[in-house]
Design a protein that fits this description.
The protein has 276 residues and is an alpha+beta fold. The protein has 11 helices and 12 strands. A hairpin with a 2-residue loop joins β8 and β9.
């Protein structure tokens, strides 16, 4: 290796000189700003920027932030017949289901839809149940994604501080935070749940806690069964609404802006002016 007069590699002083003129992001906020500048200068396309932002977002998120709440879970009971389980698979369109023990009312395993269909002639649910993974609500998504990859599990049951089932999270839910399957045309900051768009119009994240909604709009919606606005809407209508569908609860009209086959993501809400 060639060296300069003081015996050091030329790369070392060149690196120091380079660093005098080029600054690197030292915080996530600075990195996000650098991505925005890269986008403006056409150095990266929109999809690349979106995924990089998703990686940053995942670093800061916990299981509770993306889990499907307990009230929205489709659960198979261990005493259900083949036809009953098959009906749940068809109605929900899901591929994996938590299995609960009838007597103890606790999750005892996971059922894969393909396993059920492969054993139609010799149906015995106990033989098809796979091990279940339990994680705390505070579990960060980065290590959770690694666990999903290492164990080849695609679903985990989320429990609260008392060991009670709070919801579930899938590998698709985590990956979706990075690659996204929804448009970010309504770009709300991570810490913002409700964004006012006009006198009686709001953009609302589906994961908005019912308690926070009640505080902002002086309502008294029950949060005992439903933790989030998405849960409240599904509990009210009895099914998972599709994109562009509008659900009315009292004076509030919720239009689904972004959703997939598993969950609601973003809502537009209008309020009847006469009732405000």
């Amino acid at each position: 290796m060639n060296r300069d007069i003081d015996g050091k590699s030329p790369r070392s002083w060149r690196g120091k000189l380079f660093s005098k003129f080029v600054s690197f992001p030292e915080t996530q906020a600075e990195f996000s700003l650098a991505l925005e500048n890269a986008s403006k200068n056409n150095l990266l396309d929109a999809d690349s920027i979106k995924m990089m932002k998703g990686v940053i977002q995942v670093m800061n998120m916990q299981a509770r932030d993306i889990m499907i709440p307990r009230s929205e879970m489709v659960i198979v009971q261990d005493n259900e017949t083949f036809d009953e389980v098959l009906a749940k698979i068809i109605d929900s369109g899901h591929s994996r289901f938590p299995v609960a023990a009838e007597k103890e009312d606790k999750i005892i395993g996971i059922l894969l839809a393909k396993d059920l269909l492969n054993h139609q002639d010799n149906y015995k649910l106990d033989d098809m149940i796979r091990p279940v993974s339990f994680i705390p609500e505070s579990k960060r998504l980065n290590p959770l994604l690694k666990e999903f990859r290492d164990t080849h599990n695609h679903i985990a049951i989320v429990v609260d501080e008392y060991g009670e089932v709070a919801g579930l999270v899938t590998i698709e839910d985590v990956i979706e935070q990075i690659v996204g399957d929804i448009e970010d045309e309504y770009d709300l900051a991570d810490e913002v749940y409700i964004n006012k768009q006009g006198e009686n119009k709001y953009i609302i994240k589906a994961i908005t806690p019912v308690e926070e909604f009640n505080q902002q709009f002086n309502t008294r919606f029950n949060d005992d069964q439903c933790d989030t606005i998405a849960g409240l809407i599904m509990h009210h209508c009895g099914y998972l609404p599709k994109k562009h569908e509008t659900i009315t609860i009292e004076k509030f009209h919720f239009t689904i802006l972004q959703a997939n086959e598993r969950r609601i993501h973003l809502l537009e809400m209008t309020i009847d002016v006469d009732d405000k």
